[in-house]
Structure formats: structure tokens, C-alpha cells
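Predict structure. Chain length: 446.
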Amino acid sequence: MVAKTQHSADVIADVLRAVDTGMTITDAAKAFGVSRSTVSGWMKAQQHEELTILPNGVFYGGKMRLFEPPKQTTTETANVSSDNQPSAKQKLASDSLNPPVDVPADKERIRELESEVARLTQQLTWAQHAESTERTGGVLTIRRSDDHHGDKNHLLSCASSLTEKVKVLVGQYEPDRIQIIGWDDWIAGRGIYKEQDLDSATSDVNEQIAVGAIKTRRFMQAIRSVSKSPIECHCLRGNHEYAHGVSMAESLFFQNRTVCEDLPEVKFVYHWDNATINLAAEGVYNVLVRHGHGYSKHSPNSPAFIDAIKDELLVKQRQMQPHEQYRRILSGHTHWLTLGLERIHGLYWDTTGGLQRNTRVRIGDNQRPVGWIVYVSPADMDGNILQPIALRPDDDTYQREIADPHLAGANYKDAADCLKEYGDVMQANGAFAEPASFGKLNEGRL
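Prediction complete.
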């Protein structure tokens, strides 16, 4: 029926939309200059999914037919006044319709645009600091995890990119206090999985701790270069701070404190496996921090971890006043940067992305979003924070580094540089003896 008409796709779409919005078939037929039986036929075809309207034509019976602009019929001529203005009924029908929406046929292009929109959304969140220059003071909290220093697949350039973005935010907001939550999976560990030594830039646990301590010092120095505000470091233990079942986190914590002794107003607090941190400059905005455990291909948090957190909330929040209860859950472990996932009404889950290229499974299945999260609570906010900011490395930096065949070599060199710097810092602090006392065997060594 439709194939024999000479009406355009726009006319067909307008008639069907008019009927959908409440106009009778008779009024629609009169308004658009078509017969009542024609409108009924179009409705029946649409109901049986035999007819679909597109901007450039009509799908009918599985085939696409294009329509030329319709010739003006006698009825249409009668409905148009002498000055070529539409009749009142036509204008009413036109005003009641939504404008046609273009539907791109290229599904691949749609997917590309969706990906771009998601990326730009996070970039916009990161860029929001530019709109809040007057909201200074208060407290700024940095959440990072899963760095895996000492692993030959540690993403060195991505870490540098994120550090530079942290410096920008600290300089922009000028916080009165700075909090850093992290150090879970700060180092690679040993014996975490089979043949892990093959993936390590340095497998010796003491050397890993020394490398991790110097990485801590360098990060403190980076922040100190843009701010003199007190820094409080909340240290947790991840599942990689172990050497064949023996915890390395305590030794890492004390080494962090030792190498940062000369840096003013830097304090380290050890929380073991979980922490309750207040993100608010004034009042209370509590978050529960845990490293995480388990595995999921479809979620940034494993089902086992979600269940464990819910049980923990049931126990802990019984002792809390309403304003003290947790507002967010901060975790890591899955290397899957995710912000503001509302699993429970009013309770948001934030997960940091790891700085480790995963080569133990098929490429393409494992390169999850990398990044850290920054929380800002200006001095004029009571018991609240601004929209959390997701920090991600620049795309070109990330793409280059995960494909870099020389990444392992770069990590070997970086680990060696850290070990040398560690020796220099400890000697300058008076913790190590002078090289002259090492004996004859070391004479002449660089």
C-alpha cells in the first residue's frame, strides 16, 4: 500500500506522530491532505513493524524505498490560504509534533562517539577546577593505589602524567591541608602468583621496599614544589605487600617515614587493612577505604568484596550517628578506574585504576582505565565535597606505554636509579655509614 503512494517520508512520519499525540484519523487525514484509508494503512503497517520512518526514506516490508516530495493535491491546495500560509489545523498539527531526529546508520561511528563522550565527560570533570578558582582552602585528598613499583610492567610515564595533574589541582585549589590515601599494592611483592619473579624489575623484597620508599619521597617532593600545606599520608596494605605470606607493609611504612624525615610537615599514619577517613574540611564526610579482593570481568568490584563491605557497614554503622555514616567506599585492586557507582542508595563506590601493564592474560581483555581520584572540600563547605575529580593520563601517553616493547628496560633502569638515590638519602640522613668505612673491597667503585 505504502509503496504505491507518492508521499514523502516526512509526511508519513508527521501523520503517524499526529495520530500518536491524540489527533483522530479523520482529522489527520484532512490536515495533511491524504485519505483516511491511507492513514489507516500506514498505522497498520507500523503496528506490524512493516514500516519504519527514517529521515531519508521509509523501510517497508524489509526494503527501503525513497520518496520524492509529494505533488500538491487538490485537498492540500484547499487547505492552504491564498497567501501560502498553512491552515490553522495544519499549524496546530505541526506545533504538536516533535522535530524529526536523524538516526545515523553507521553503528561503528555511534560507538566511537559514545566512547568519545565518555572520555570527554571525565576530562570535563578533571577540568572543573578551572571554574572553581575562588573555592580555595579546605582539604584536598588524593586517592591512588596499585602502583606496583618494582614490577617491570609499571607504567612510568602514566605515573608522571598523573603526578603533573595532581600538582595542577593542588596549585589551583591551594588547600590548607592535603591528605593522601594509598600505598596499597605500592610495590610488586614476591610469591603473589606463580613465577612472579619473571615479572619483577627487582625481586629482592628489601630492594622493592627501598624503591617504593624513594617513589614516596619523589611524590612528596612533587607536591612540596607547589604547596607548603601539611601533608598527611594514610597508608594501607594491599594484597601485594607480601613476600610468600609475610607482610612487607610495615617495613615499607617505616622506610617511607625515614626517607621523608627532611621534608617539612609530612606525616605518615598506618591503617593496616582498612581506614575511615574524613574528606570534609569542616564537619564530617566519612569514607570507608579498603584495598579490595576477588575478581570480576564485569564490575570494578568483585561480588565477594561487595558482600563483605555490606556486612562491614551493617556492623560499623550501628555505632555511628546519622551524619557520621559512610558516604563513599574507596577501593582499588581491580585496576578499573570508576567514579560514583551508586550500588546502594546514597552510597557511592569509587575505584582507582592501576599503574601496571597486565601481560598475563590476552591483550585487549585486561587494559582497564588507569587513574587516580581527587576529592576537594573547600573551606566554605560544611560536611561536603565538590564533585570528585577522576585523573587519567593523557591518551597518547597511555597508548604509547602499554605498547612499549622497552618498558621493562625502562623499569630496570628506574629501579636502579631509585636504589642509588635511596643510598644517598639514607647516608645524608645519617642512617648509613660513610663509604670509607666499607673496607678495601669497595675502593674505586662508583
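Summary: Confidence is low (pLDDT under 50) at residues 52-83, 88-103.
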